[in-house]
Write a structure and sequence with these properties.
Layout (H helix, E strand, L loop, with lengths): L1 H14 L5 H10 L6 H10 L2 E5 L5 E5 L5 H15 E7 L2 E6 L4 H9 L6 E6 L3 E6 L2 H15 L1
Antiparallel strand pairs: 1-2, 3-4, 4-6, 5-6
Length: 150
C-alpha cells in the first residue's frame, strides 16, 4: 500500500505542478488512493520531496537528492579512506584491513551505502569481512575500494 501510494505520488508530481499537500491528496483520491494529510506529509519526507519555483512564480513538489545526500557520500568515502589500509578479495568475500579499532566504522559506512550486491558485513578490531552476493561483485567492489584509497 505504502509503495503503491508513494509510486503514485511520484507519477503525479512528474506530470503535474502540485503546490500543496491538499492538492496532492486530491490528485491521489482521483486515482483511488485515499490518505490522511499526515500520511502524505510523511511520504513527502520519505521521498525527499522539495518545493521549487516554477517559471510562473508558484511552487511545486519535485524530488530532491535527499538530505545532504552528497555530503553523506563524501563523509562515507572519508571514513573509508581514513580507516581502510588494504582490501583483498576471496571469492565472494571482501576482506578489509583497517587501522586498529576502525573495522566496525568501515562496516557501518559500507552498510549505509545501500550497495545492491552487499549481503552484509562483520567488523572485528582491525579486520572487516564483507559478504557480497557473487564473486564478480566482490571483485568489482574491491577494485572500487582500492581506487578510493589511491
Amino acid at each position: 500500500m505504502k509503495k503503491h501510494r508513494q509510486d503514485a505520488i511520484m507519477k503525479i508530481i512528474a506530470s503535474s505542478d502540485i503546490e500543496t499537500q491538499n492538492q496532492l491528496m486530491g490528485e491521489l483520491a482521483k486515482i483511488g488512493v485515499h490518505s490522511a494529510q499526515a500520511t502524505i506529509s510523511r511520504d513527502i519526507k520519505a521521498l525527499h520531496l522539495i518545493k521549487e519555483p516554477t517559471p510562473g512564480g508558484v511552487y511545486r513538489y519535485v524530488r530532491g537528492s535527499g538530505p545532504d545526500d552528497m555530503s553523506k557520500k563524501l563523509r562515507l568515502k572519508a571514513i573509508l579512506r581514513e580507516s581502510v589500509a588494504s582490501c583483498l578479495c576471496a571469492q565472494n568475500i571482501v576482506v578489509l584491513k583497517t587501522l586498529p579499532g576502525l573495522a566496525p566504522a568501515a562496516c557501518s559506512a559500507i552498510d549505509s551505502m545501500g550497495i545492491e550486491a552487499h549481503a552484509g558485513s562483520v567488523g572485528g578490531g582491525d579486520t572487516a569481512f564483507l559478504a557480497m552476493t557473487d564473486n564478480d561483485s566482490a571483485n568489482e567492489f574491491c577494485m572500487e575500494i582500492e581506487e578510493m584509497l589511491k
